[in-house]
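[Discussion] Sanity-checking designs against the backbone

I'm trying to build intuition for which residues belong where. Below is a structure token string of 456 positions. I'd appreciate it if someone posts a full sequence so I can compare it with mine line by line.
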């Protein structure tokens, strides 16, 4: 029962349907279905207003790291709350955002030196785009034509106009095309559905060769290339073959194109490293962070830059080299205090090393899904997994969009006590990093059974 004498559970469900417009949700379907209203969380579990318990199989949209209601993060936020909840970072500093910035630079790729805060992954990418553009505008006449951006096919970088412009998912982005700036595209490696009809590793990373040609061709026109390293999230958990990212980094360096890594989804241990860049020792010029930065507690994002880029904005007041961009809650103290404690828990619990056996177990259990008729492709990195469902395994023919197979799988899983959210017909499994082997097996067992019973 909701803890309010004047509002009962039925009222809450009714008010949600009457007043709330949910993100990435077809509300016509939502209005017909029974909504699940979450009231509390504990560890890897979510509880609805009726007391039903669910395994949080997607970390509350990829953000929760150390579990819900974590006592250490709770205490850190409470302690900060007793001091101050928010003061502006425009013309003032504050203690938690300063400490967190230092900690982020200490664990980030060594190329990075400065932190610019914002509120979401979208704004983090938006900032990266604007800084890259302005940087070359201020760098001198030689670079005056470097205005374009290069991004990958099927990319997702957020929902603001700039981040949508570099995005490449037609379902999400095509409607806004008249509002967007033009982006140069390179092929993101999708080995299961290779656009060149080649097979990895015999292909010798042909997609990387083609990308290198495009990067070189636009060397005088492109300010930056933005890419999700090692795995594309919203596109359907599409994992990158070894060596591709390193080739992209090298091509950017050789052609004076800034490399922007979008680590919004991959940062903070998701891929088995603190950042996905570590898998191939990538040293970006700019890195975008959000989601797990506060351990899944409060909205916050950060865009990290090299010292060279930062210095490109230094000048006299009248030079107007200032980066005229900011958000009201930039560097918010409550969020920053959660972020500090989250990083301390990584260190205290030796979390990156601790999850390595769990990652191996996760990968082994996911491999069993290949036995299912509807599981066309199973892919993972770290504790990020995706099962792409198909109508015909041999031909890779997908289900019809109107069949809403992924959505139906998620509804069935919820009936069995597991919360997942599909990406189309790719079933995503991305639990909190502190999940136990036993609960992980239970989670995957439910998903396996539901997929195995498609059409039955």
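Best answer:
Here's mine. Compare freely.
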């Amino acid at each position: 029962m909701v803890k309010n004498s004047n509002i009962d559970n039925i009222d809450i469900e009714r008010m949600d349907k009457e007043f709330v417009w949910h993100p990435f949700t077809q509300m016509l379907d939502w209005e017909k279905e029974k909504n699940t209203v979450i009231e509390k969380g504990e560890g890897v579990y979510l509880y609805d207003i009726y007391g039903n318990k669910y395994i949080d199989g997607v970390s509350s949209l990829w953000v929760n790291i150390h579990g819900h209601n974590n006592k250490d993060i709770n205490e850190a936020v409470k302690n900060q709350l007793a001091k101050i909840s928010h003061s502006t970072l425009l013309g003032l500093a504050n203690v938690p955002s300063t400490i967190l910035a230092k900690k982020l630079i200490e664990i980030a790729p060594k190329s990075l030196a400065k932190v610019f805060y914002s509120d979401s992954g979208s704004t983090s990418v938006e900032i990266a785009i604007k800084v890259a553009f302005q940087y070359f505008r201020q760098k001198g006449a030689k670079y005056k034509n470097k205005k374009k951006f290069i991004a990958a096919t099927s990319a997702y970088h957020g929902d603001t106009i700039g981040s949508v412009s570099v995005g490449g998912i037609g379902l999400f982005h095509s409607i806004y095309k008249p509002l967007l700036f033009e982006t140069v595209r390179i092929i993101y490696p999708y080995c299961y559905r290779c656009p060149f009809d080649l097979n990895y590793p015999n292909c010798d990373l042909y997609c990387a060769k083609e990308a290198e040609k495009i990067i070189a061709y636009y060397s005088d026109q492109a300010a930056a290339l933005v890419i999700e390293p090692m795995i594309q999230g919203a596109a359907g958990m599409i994992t990158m073959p070894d060596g591709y990212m390193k080739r992209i980094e090298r091509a950017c360096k050789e052609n004076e194109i800034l490399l922007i890594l979008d680590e919004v989804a991959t940062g903070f241990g998701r891929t088995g490293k603190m950042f996905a860049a570590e898998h191939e020792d990538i040293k970006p010029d700019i890195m975008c962070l959000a989601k797990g930065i506060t351990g899944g507690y409060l909205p916050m994002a950060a865009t990290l830059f090299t010292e060279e880029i930062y210095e490109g904005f230094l000048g006299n007041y009248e030079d107007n080299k200032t980066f005229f961009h900011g958000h009201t809650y930039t560097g918010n103290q409550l969020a920053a205090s959660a972020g500090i404690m989250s990083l301390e828990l990584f260190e205290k619990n030796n979390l990156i090393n601790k999850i390595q056996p769990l990652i191996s177990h996760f990968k082994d259990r996911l491999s069993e899904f290949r036995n299912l008729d509807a599981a066309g492709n199973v892919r993972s990195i770290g504790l990020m997994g995706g099962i792409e469902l198909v109508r015909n395994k041999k031909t890779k023919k997908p289900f019809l969009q109107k069949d809403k197979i992924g959505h139906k799988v998620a509804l069935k899983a919820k009936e069995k006590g597991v919360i997942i959210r599909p990406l189309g017909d790719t079933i995503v499994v991305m639990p909190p990093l502190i999940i136990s082997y036993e609960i992980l097996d239970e989670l995957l067992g439910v998903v396996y059974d539901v997929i195995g019973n498609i059409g039955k």
